[in-house]
Amino acid sequence: SDVGPQKDRVVTEEEWLQKWELGNIGFHKEQVHPLLQKHLDLLLNGRSGLRIFFPLCGKAVEMKWLADMGHNVVGVEVSEQALKEFFSEHSLPYCEEPVPEISGGKLFQSTSGNISLYCCSIYDLSSTIVGKFDGVWDRGALVAVNPCDRQRYVSLMINLMEKNSSYLLVTVSYDPNKHKGPPFYVPESEVQSLFG
Ligand code: SAH
């Protein structure tokens, strides 16, 4: 678990925006993640009509999939382009409004009301603004956060969770000497210490 080589690496918001502009988005998948399909029952735990959070959501197709099952989906993403592509690729009408609590923040909400996507940094959010969640789908999120921001990110996520919530986390395992990330290598031991 040698995480040394990646610990000081920083990807700026501008770099993420540029990835979207250049279409450099190899992380985006057209199909629902097989691990979400496989472990859906762990996320739902027999419950219906959940509030499910997608940190660093991109244009993840799983948001539409879960919304179609009757859940309320909330996401956050710095790229406005990503959010607009999400709605247009699924032919979903939406409206756009400013978020008074967040300078420059915008909320894109499906007209049907069950998909609410915040365009801002995740670090601008709080439970006062978005409420708390029954479930979290964290794929391409903890592993995309800069290593120096992991503790802050996880503290926020814990704050956004209801008492009986479930958190599905996807990580990747590889030799961090061979690839600079993202996705970053977050070893199991670090997941344990971050989430406690
Ligand atoms: N979870 C998505 C996207 C993964 S890529 C998926 O599964 O496809 C990580 C995404 O996080 C990128 O779209 C990037 O623009 C966004 N991002 C990076 N830093 C962010 C931040 N601080 N706040 C919100 N979004 C951020």
UniProtKB/TrEMBL annotation:
| UniProt GO BP | methylation
Per its record, the protein catalyses: S-adenosyl-L-methionine + a thiopurine = S-adenosyl-L-homocysteine + a thiopurine S-methylether
**One function term, GO molecular function aspect:** thiopurine S-methyltransferase activity
Q: Which UniProt keywords apply?
A: Cytoplasm, Methyltransferase, S-adenosyl-L-methionine, Transferase
Which Gene Ontology cellular-component terms appear in the entry? cytoplasm
Q: Where does S-adenosyl-L-methionine bind?
A: 16-27, 56, 77, 121-122, 139
Q: Is-annotated flag, keyword Flavoprotein?
A: no
Class of the enzyme per the UniProt entry, highest EC level: transferase
List localization entries. Cytoplasm
* Principal subcellular localisation of the protein: cytoplasm
Kindly list the residue ranges recorded as spanning the membrane.
Answer: none
Enzyme Commission number, as recorded: 2.1.1.67
Is Transit peptide given among the entry's keywords? Answer: no
Q: Which InterPro entries match?
A: SAM-dependent_MTases_sf, Thiopurine_S-MeTrfase, TPMT
Origin, by domain of life? Eukaryota
Similarity comment: Belongs to the class I-like SAM-binding methyltransferase superfamily. TPMT family.
Per its record, how is this protein called by name?
Answer: thiopurine S-methyltransferase
Question: Which organism is the protein's source?
Answer: Grallaria varia (variegated antpitta)
Gene (name only): Tpmt
